[in-house]
Amino acid sequence: MQIPGFKTIEEIERHFGVEISGEEKKKLKKVIEKHPMFIPDYYASLINWSDPNDPVKQIIFPSLDELDLSGSYDTSGEKENTVLTGLQHKYRETVLLLVTNRCAGYCRHCFRKRMVGIPTNETVKLFDRAVEYIKEHPEITNVLISGGDPLVLPTDVIEYFLSELSKIEHLKFIRFGSRVPVFYPMRIYEDSKLLEVFSRYSRPERRVYLVTHFNHPREVTPEARRAVDSLIRSGVPVSNQTVLLKGVNDDPDVLATLMKEITSAGVIPYYVFQCRPVKRVKTHFQVPLKRGYEIVEGAKQRLDGHAKRFRYIMSHKTGKIEIVGIIGNEIYLKYHQAKNPKKVGKLFKRLLTPDAGWFDDLKPVEERAVAV
Asked: What is the predicted pLDDT for the residue at 224?
């Protein structure tokens, strides 16, 4: 499907009266050559283009900070968990399918910058073979269809995915990961066939879920609420994964407001992710863990039980590590999910330095005793 929007700096300048200096424009074009820009026209209308620090703009408009190459393009070990092209099997019960490299808009903090919006060999080539793999592994209870964004694909393709996966008896539910409700919500509520497909396959005995990605309260528009409502009325529960982002939502009031707004819209707060140390992302967006914990807990103090159901998580190559608490210079962690199932639920601690932003920056507590 075609989503109207902006692909070049010049289009933004003409449409919104933005002036960008020649030198900055030259550098931004280098960024875009490596990682394309696409801003849906609907989403662009949410931005205050006269404010250089507009938080919604930070999410979608390229930055000179993207020239910084510190970090990794695969922070969660996706390559090592790929068992078929486009199929990852990291956690025993879950299979991840990457079905496209396209999105409704290109987030500048994307942890799959290595493949999204550019030619890639990482997406599913033979969906039928992926289905056979799932059939051969009865321990798999759910499938996450992601990319890219699967909802930019034609509705007939989405229907095919659901029809084939729904034939597998040991699957308990199917998930779609999509930012379409945020970037271009009318794709959902204007497509009656899509809603009919969801309604047909999301049944009491096996639900279809949609996991979306609201990062800032201004994204929770009447149009986004309508898209969420359309999904819920079609039997599709909607949950949300927020990324903690410097300059976007790294403030307890902003994060709390976001959670209140999505909860009022019927979206279940699911995760707040620590921003991963991705190349061209880390220095721009990542908040230190100590500060991140303070922001998250500050937000929770402002929220009721329903709005603070989310967990503060690092999606590490070894698993999803929950940040449980900080006492002094020690951070307490727990494996919420793990590549090694024996680690699930394991509680442990590490030494925390003020600038540590990722699990790999933390040192085992035992090292302190050795140093002394």
From this structure: 98
User: Please, what is the angle between helix 192-201 and helix 155-165, to 10°?
Assistant: 0
pLDDT in tens, 47-89: 999 999 999 999 999 999 999 999 999 999 999 999 999 999 9
Other CB atoms within 10 Å distance of the CB of residue 347 = 10
Q: Is 2 helix (H, G, I), strand (E, B) or coil?
A: coil
- Beta carbons within 8 Å of 215's beta carbon, 6+ residues apart: 59, 182, 242, 243, 245, 248, 249, 258
Residue among 31, 60, 152 at smallest CA distance from 102: 152
Q: Average pLDDT of 239-248?
A: 98
Tokens of 282: 């880390």
Q: Which domains does the chain have, with CATH numbers?
A: 5-67 (no CATH), 82-311 (3.20.20.70)
For 79, which DSSP code? T
Instruction: Using DSSP bridges, classify how beta strands 87-88 and 94-98 pair: parallel, antiparallel or unpaired.
Output: antiparallel
Report the DSSP pairing between strands 87-88 and 142-146.
unpaired
pLDDT for 39: 98
Cβ neighbour number for residue 256 with a 10 Å cutoff: 22
